[in-house]
Amino acid sequence: MKRNNQEMLSHQQSMRILAEYSQEAGWNKHCFAVAHAAAKVGHVLSKNRPIDCSFLWSAALLHDIGRYITHDPLLHGVEGYKLLSMLGHEKEAHVCASHILFGLNAAEATQLGLPDRDFVPRTVEDKLVPLVDYLIEYDQPTTLNRRFSSLRKRNGGNSFFLNRLERAYEIARLFMTQIEGEIDESIERIVASQENCS
């Protein structure tokens, strides 16, 4: 049943959705790690530009919610989009779909069962979710290079995914370079730091 929910998800609502659909499965640790790392990066970046840190945290927490159906590297984003759309959380649903390979064009989206339109990260918050996702291996910080190497190895038989992975790497690398230029800090270092975002 779809709700018409124009309000932003609170931290508690986001955690409730994750808990309900993850059933405490191991992958929810990754979701929390990405949310906390995204909050740290968002906090630093908010000193230079407006950042909706609450939305960023919730979208990062729920980016992999589709794993309750599948662990496929592409289809979990589709399933997350479907679930959050059904629940009335369109902005977070968009992030589920657009975090896949740092964005899908309309042809790729329809091939995966999404509506016939581009699903690309639009806002800085939308872009920070896949970037930080690429800096967390399971629930541990890593580097962009190590994460993409791991993704190549784990998805060796998935030609659709691998054919687009280099494009995703280039988009992530360029966005990370742009943000690092703004804040004069290493994103990988921020993600790896033990500091909590206040």
Number of strands: 2
Weakly predicted, low-confidence segments: 1-5
CATH topology: Hypothetical protein af1432
What is the global morphology?
globular
Q: What is the level-2 CATH architecture name?
A: Orthogonal Bundle
SSE pattern, N- to C-terminal: HHHHHHHEEHHH
Numbering strands along the chain, what is their spatial order in the largest sheet? 1-2
- Structural class of the helix and strand makeup? mainly alpha
| Cα end-to-end separation | 36 Å
Strand content: under 5%
- Rg, nearest Å: 16 Å
What count of structural domains? 1
Percent range of helical residues: 55-70%
Residue-averaged pLDDT, rounded? 94
Biggest β-sheet, characterized? 2 strands, antiparallel
Question: Your description of this structure?
Answer:
With 198 residues, the protein is an all-alpha fold. The protein has one domain: Orthogonal Bundle (Hypothetical protein af1432). The protein has helices spanning 11-22, 27-45, 53-62, 75-86, 90-98, 106-111, 124-133, 144-154, 159-183, 187-192, and strands at residues 136-137, 140-141. It has a two-stranded antiparallel ribbon with strand order 1-2. β1 (136-137) and β2 form a beta hairpin. α2 packs across α7 and α3 crosses α7 (124-133). The longest helix has 25 residues, at 159-183. It is globular and about 40 Å long.
Blueprint of the fold:
Elements: H1 11-22, H2 27-45, H3 53-62, H4 75-86, H5 90-98, H6 106-111, H7 124-133, E1 136-137, E2 140-141, H8 144-154, H9 159-183, H10 187-192
Antiparallel strand pairs: 1-2
